[in-house]
Amino acid sequence: MKKLKVQDLIAVGIYTAIYFLLMSVCLLILRFVIPGFHNLFIPAVTALFSGIIYLILLNKVPKFGAITIMGTVVGLFFLISGHFPLAFLPNMLCALAADLIQYKTKLKGNVRVLASYIVFSFGLMGPILPLWFMKNAYIDSLVARGKDETYIAGVFAHTSNLMLGLCALAVLIGAVAGLGIGSRLMEKHFQPTIQSHKG
């Protein structure tokens, strides 16, 4: 297994920054298109548009650890930007799982990349999962940040079990479609084919 070098870390940092930019643009658009639901569907929409970034990362830094670093940085961003304290864990864990799938399994190339990206994409559900599974603690964190009852009620207005299922399904669909779009873009604008690397 090849170790990450300084130039690899720099490349991961660049692709992570681009990933952040895409996520921010998606969030901005969703605020106008589906206000009130934008936070719930940002994982799915980000997965839809970020497949190309993921594929470039695999192509340019085909080493175990790159995916984990990207997911960890995203998770730490959530932590320092005021999200629920445990919101960063799913990003880190899903990124590590995606790394293991990509470089430690014997799945066929395309299947491995797809499974890896799907798992990675579910990490973005970290900031919204506490709405369902740690509601009281989440409310306490909002109160501690000075949020009033109206704001808190708005945060939980759409957190039904059905909505949780829809969010998860949307992430799955977004990741599958996003990787398909990313593959086409790779073939057209970057390399003839994306190499499915495995350590």
Automatic annotation (TrEMBL):
Alphabetic keyword roster: Membrane, Transmembrane, Transmembrane helix
Segments traversing the membrane: 12-34, 40-57, 64-80, 114-133, 162-181
Signal peptide coordinates: none
Superkingdom per UniProt: Bacteria
InterPro entries: CHP02185_IM
NCBIfam families assigned to the protein according to its UniProt record, in alphabetical order: Trep_Strep
Record-given protein name: ABC transporter permease
Species per Swiss-Prot/TrEMBL record: Enterococcus innesii
